[in-house]
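Subject: Predicted fold for Protein-lysine N-methyltransferase EB796_018337, 215 residues

User T.R. writes:
Posting the sequence so we have a shared reference for the thread.
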Amino acid sequence: MSCSHPNLEPRNSSWDDFYKTELHNYNDHGEEGEVWFGMQSVNRVVRWIVKEISEKTTPILDLGCGNGMVLLKLEEEGYINLTGVDYSQPAILLAKSLAQNGQIKYETGDLLDLSSSAVFTTKYDVVLDKGTYDAISLSPDGALQKRLAYVENVHKLIPIGGYLWITSCNWTSSEIISHFTANSKFSLREEIPVKQFKFGGQVGQTVCCLVFQAA
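User M.O. replies:
I've generated the structure tokens; pasting them so everyone works from the same file.
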């Protein structure tokens, strides 16, 4: 399983360049920018949270929030304890511009360095990742070590029983499950159904979505 997206390239200045363009487009003619994996993916996350998380004050963190569209949709559903963090400062500037009068908190930070943001000093009952783990996995230097650090650090952000939602287009479901359950820090809660396709007699899907619980 693989995908091609400007935001899913290895973590480097190209992210900033991409979001600088997105921010310019928003300031110039109000274009909100690209949504990772499309609005179907956003709606999939929101539907699950509305179904499973009834308390509107539940702390929710979006890792690699980009333009913040997931959090904007959750705010529309009445959730009020929302935080977005992204490695790219232009992405955060765009998200803040789109939020305007909303109550969503946005900060720049790097999950691989928990000292990089105050966002990482607290815990969240729900952590959302729609592409960040993929981007880390594509790092040209020390990708395995960075993936292990991701699992270790994201676990520190979630209380026991809290949820981690992963959307990936670079790993299969079985690979993601193996990565996150290998050290017993997480257990699989459920796999979210996504649209499948058939080609040459084989069945596949463009993304996988899984929900883990912190142990």
